[in-house]
Amino acid sequence: MNQKTRVFLVAVNPYPTPQHLAEESLAELEALAETLGFEVTGQAIQSRTAPDSHTYIGKGKLEEIRGYLAHDEVELVLFDNELSPRQGQTLEKILGCMVWDRTQVILEIFSRHARTSESRAQVELARLKYMLPRLVGLWAHLDRERGGIGASRGMGEKQINIDRQIIRNRISKLEKSLKKIGAQQTTRKKSRKNCYQVCLIGYTNAGKSTLMNLLTGSELLAADRLFATLDSTT
What we know:
Helix content is 52%, strand content 12%. It contains eight helices and four strands; from the N terminus they run βαβαβαβααααα. The chain has helices at residues 19-35, 59-72, 85-95, 102-113, 117-131, 140-145, 155-191, 208-216; strands spanning 6-14, 39-48, 76-79, 98-101. Helix 3 (85-95) links the parallel strand 3 and strand 4. Helix 1 packs parallel to helix 4 (102-113), helix 4 (102-113) runs antiparallel to helix 5 (117-131) and helix 5 (117-131) runs antiparallel to helix 7 (155-191). The longest helix has 37 residues, at 155-191. The radius of gyration is 22 Å and the shape is globular. The model is unreliable at 139-153 (pLDDT under 50).
């Protein structure tokens, strides 16, 4: 039996936003974490006039969280906010573990639940665009390891440039593939233009797939978890 990844949740509640809104949002982040099979060990909310430009949360709260992580063997910290690439790198150095923001959590769920070629391409494209500005720092250890008098510098920067080009090429290929899929879908829609159409639209886990199954006799996946279904069904 695989042990669940232990995670800790963090949120910043900017003044004058009511505290209960931050609590509701953090509860949803907990549900997202559970969708990924994570075990939530604790959470922290800090009220501030504005996020810290370097660490998003204040130094005092950060030290408090670091102490908790060491005591409870937490492997991953999830922020219920969008972190800049630099903030994410700084937080990982201070906390000594991986740090994800809310966008990364959702992208991971999308990646696991995508089924069709279109949804897989869309998710990969989104992940690559998210990753591109975050390459700085991933290869910085190469420069540190090769540092010193007379040592060749810039290996990390060279690797970053190589990776950037690989990612940009992949992004271009995915965008072309999605345009082709879009054209094929347009052709299929034209063949149904004389049909009466009804759309089911709603927030994640609202019951769209369950209702679709009841109305049409379909056997779509219907599960009580966020983003269980990504692909549209006709």
